[in-house]
Amino acid sequence: MKEIIALIRVNKIQKTRDALAEKGFYSMTVNQVLGRGRQKGIHYEIKSGDVPDYDKVARLNYIPKRMVTMMVPDIHVDEIVNTIIETNRTGNYGDGKIFVCPLEDAIRVRTKETGEIALYQ
């Protein structure tokens, strides 16, 4: 089993959810997060032609993102990762990151079932 953690743009969460659901992957946890990558946030200049000496640099150090977490059997990892990439890739900075981590076990609290059975059935 694996844990997939995807950090994606806020405006892509619905499209990502729909694309995964279309392939039969419904279970996920989504969190609102803030972060920044190598670009160190967003920087832009504000200029006003009406007010002399009004040039300022605005800075957004942390960018709002969505963190999607999924626990899945090993056989589905490639399909899920590829679906997330296809749905979120624009070719620009800030498209996101995906982390795939080993998952030692899963336990359904209600029935005490363990392993992959606890994930889906």
Describe the structure.
The protein has 121 residues and is of the alpha+beta class. The protein has a single domain, classed as Alpha-Beta Plaits, CATH 3.30.70.120. It has helices at residues 13-22, 77-88, 116-120, and strands at 2-9, 29-35, 42-46, 56-60, 63-72, 97-102. It has a four-stranded antiparallel sheet with strand order 2-5-1-6, covered by helices on one side. α1 (13-22) runs antiparallel to α2 (77-88). The radius of gyration is 19 Å and the shape is elongated. The two termini are 15 Å apart. The mean pLDDT is 89.
In short:
With 121 residues, the chain is α+β, with helices and mostly antiparallel strands. It has 3 helices and 6 strands.
Q: What's the helical proportion of residues?
A: 10-25%
The tally of strands reads: 6
Which sequence of SSEs, written as H and E, runs from N to C?
EHEEEEHEH
Main sheet: strands, sense, barrel = 4 strands, antiparallel
- Tell me the CATH architecture: 2-Layer Sandwich
Q: Helical element count?
A: 3
Rg, alpha carbons: 19 Å
CATH class: Alpha Beta
Strand order, sheet with most strands: 2-5-1-6
Mean pLDDT, to the nearest integer, reads: 89
CATH fold title: Alpha-Beta Plaits
Q: How many structurally independent domains?
A: 1
The quaternary structure here is single chain
In percent, how much strand structure appears in the residues? 25-35%
Structural class, from helix and strand content?
alpha+beta
- Distance from first to last alpha carbon: 15 Å
The general outline is elongated
Instruction: Enumerate the spans where pLDDT stays under 50 for 5 or more consecutive residues.
Output: none
